Amino acid sequence: MKTWVLNEFLYFPEDKSEYLPAAIELAIILVLCVAVFFTIKKMAKKQELKTKMLEEEILQNRQQDVKQNQSN
Predict the structure, then answer these.
(1) pLDDT (tens digit per residue) in 2-23
(2) Helix (H) or strand (E) holding 20
(3) Is the pTM of this model over 0.85?
């Protein structure tokens, strides 16, 4: 019974040119996935740099506030 169910999902064509559209689609999707991955990686790097700059600015402001409070 189990082998009968699995046999319906398996299809190996005699004409191997039927694999070509699937291979092309797979290649296109793979290229798109890689492009999206590097785009997200690039965007994350930009956000990381912005966050570091903001963090440094906050620390500088905090240090200035501490110095002002100590002088008062």
Answers:
(1) 566 666 677 778 888 988 999 9
(2) helix 19-71
(3) no
